[in-house]
Design goal:
The protein is 41% helix and 16% strand. The protein is α/β, with parallel strands linked by helices. The chain has a single domain, classed as Ribonuclease H-like superfamily/Ribonuclease H (Nucleotidyltransferase, domain 5), CATH 3.30.420. Strand 5, helix 2 and strand 6 form a beta-alpha-beta unit. Helix 3 packs parallel to helix 6 and helix 4 crosses helix 6. The mean pLDDT is 95.
Length: 205
């Protein structure tokens, strides 16, 4: 396994030919509009990871933006709602098509309320993920080795996780419902950025 760190943008030939790409992001916090997007990590499922350390003065990353909007590439997230909102807010693109393993887990794994990435990966893949670097300074000029390893780990297991969850969704005959949720997810993220983050637009009141 190799983790590549890129400054500013993803190389044009990176992840070429992939039909599924796992994606995650690191920010300075979890509040839209306040906390900047700092790092985007990606993997095509082949065992390598690519980390893009964004230029926060311009967010000029044309290759990354092209991938995020490529209709032939399904982007796999865990809690994609936040990442997609961040990409819309800072990169100006609506990411689609997408697959969210957290949504898949909530629809398929109704026997539990534990849908965090660490919990799901432990149960379904037998891998114990470390979350030690989750709250660290992702805006630092130089990322530490521990930060790089942590960021890579968050995308390296998403392909296998998607496969396991998709099997469960099909078995329970909930795959069409999950697909409809994935299709709506980019619109939900845009609503978040537009100010409806804490509003259930489908509620009666």
């Amino acid at each position: 396994m190799t983790t590549y760190v890129h400054e500013g943008d993803l190389p044009a030939d990176a992840l070429a030919g992939a039909s599924f790409v796992a994606i995650d992001s690191e920010t300075m916090g979890l509040r839209l509009g306040r906390d900047p997007l700092c790092v985007v990590q990606l993997s095509d499922g082949g065992g390598d990871a690519h980390l893009v350390k964004l230029d926060r003065t311009t967010y000029d990353a044309p290759n990354l933006k092209r991938l995020l909007t490529d209709p032939s590439v399904t982007k796999i997230f865990h809690f994609g709602r936040f990442d997609i909102a961040m990409f819309w807010l800072h990169l100006g693109v609506v990411t689609q098509p997408v697959y969210c393993t957290k949504i898949a887990s909530k629809i398929a794994r109704t026997y539990t309320d534990r849908h965090g990435l660490k919990d799901i990966v432990k149960e379904l893949l037998g891998v114990d993920l470390s979350k030690a670097q989750q709250s660290s300074d992702w805006g630092a000029a130089q990322l530490s080795d521990d930060q790089i390893a942590y960021a890579a780990s968050d995308v390296l297991h998403l392909h296998a996780l998607r496969e396991r969850l998709q099997e469960m969704l099909v078995r329970e005959r909930r795959d069409a419902l999950a697909k409809a949720c994935f299709d709506f997810l980019p619109h939900r993220a845009v609503l978040d950025v537009a100010g409806w983050e804490d509003v259930d637009i489908f509620a009666h009141s």
